[in-house]
Amino acid sequence: MSAPLHLRHTEDPSDVEQQIRSLLAEGRIWEAQELLKSVGDDVPVDPKLRDVLGPARVRKSDLKDFDRSAEFRWLKTNWEAYQGKWVALLGEDLLASSDTLQELRARLAELHPKRRPLIHHLI
Amino acid sequence: MLTLDGEPFTTGRSRFLDHHPRFPEPTAKVFVKIIFAGLDEARVAQVDTAAAYSILEADVATDLGLLGLQEPWTRLSTRVGVLNGQLIRIPVTLVADEGESLHLDAVFFVSPDWRGGTFLGYTGFLDRLRIALDSPANLFYFGEES
């Protein structure tokens, strides 16, 4: 982490939100987060702003995937030939490719693949 | 999964993609599988402990209906320059091949100008997780802090 910051927080809670918004507008996201943390929960700040500056919320999920070694091999082997494209893979099979993600997903909707494909943008 | 002092350290694992053909240098590129809520497909995102924030590729943001809702109100310095955008909390699952997957409501920087892939950065994503790599086996282990 970098050196401690000199935050611009003042005793006036009413301008904390404005200070946070100013920091964000300057791209000083971490400083905005630190300022919000330093003032605690009692100072009035837009709840939406508090939400996006807060930590990630984590919980366990039942969603599962499966070994994608075959898809990864395809990506390594075919990257150059499909550079710039969005691709949808299932095992070593290319299900579809497109210049745009929207087109790719439309194509997948028609194909009804048996298992969940892996999609990737070969940039 | 992995244990530390007899207690679970990580609870899920998945195989990761370790190489990006566009970058020939022999440095680790750890691409792990994620699934965004509302989008059925699995996709890969690069784990980047050096990135302060997670960033979402613009096409994916469009697919999720996240672009154009608000004017940009913050900025982020990236390898292609400073981009204007927003911070948006997005539900996403770090999916396991074995063990338990983790669902995160994580904050991503979203900009219509970012087309460099989706990155999982430190603040707001990785800083809530325990992660470990088995590099010879290309296995990514993950769990939540207890």
Question: How does the SSE layout of this entry go?
Answer:
The complex is a heterodimer of chains A (123) and B (146).
Chain A (H helix, E strand, L loop, with lengths): L15 H10 L3 H11 L7 H7 L3 E5 L7 H10 L7 E5 L2 E6 L2 H11 L6 E4 L2
Antiparallel strand pairs in A: 2-3, 2-4
Chain B lengths: L2 E2 L2 E2 L3 E4 L14 E7 L5 E6 L6 E3 L1 H6 L10 E5 L2 E14 L3 E2 L1 E10 L8 E2 L8 E6 L4 E6 L2
Parallel strand pairs in B: 5-11, 6-10
Antiparallel strand pairs in B: 1-2, 3-9, 3-13, 4-5, 4-8, 7-8, 8-10, 12-13
Description:
- The complex is a heterodimer of chains A (123) and B (146).
- Chain A has 123 residues and is of the alpha+beta class.
- Helices cover 40% and strands 16% of the residues of chain A.
- Chain A has helices at 16-25, 29-39, 47-53, 69-78, 101-111; strands at residues 57-61, 86-90, 93-98, 118-121.
- Chain A has a three-stranded antiparallel β-sheet with strand order 3-2-4.
- In chain A, strand 2 and strand 3 form a beta hairpin.
- Chain A is elongated and about 60 Å long.
- Chain B has one domain (3-144): Cathepsin D, subunit A, domain 1, CATH 2.40.70.10.
- Helix content of chain B is 4%, strand content 47%.
- Chain B is built from one helix and 13 strands, in the order E-E-E-E-E-E-H-E-E-E-E-E-E-E.
- Chain B has one helix spanning 58-63, and strands spanning 3-4, 7-8, 12-15, 30-36, 42-47, 54-56, 74-78, 81-94, 98-99, 101-110, 119-120, 129-134, 139-144.
- In chain B, strands 4, 5, 6, 7, 8, 10 and 11 form a seven-stranded mixed β-sheet that branches. In chain B, strands 9-3-13-12 form a four-stranded antiparallel β-sheet, with no helix packed on it. Chain B has a two-stranded antiparallel sheet with strand order 1-2.
- In chain B, strand 1 and strand 2 form a beta hairpin.
- The radius of gyration of chain B is 16 Å and the shape is globular.
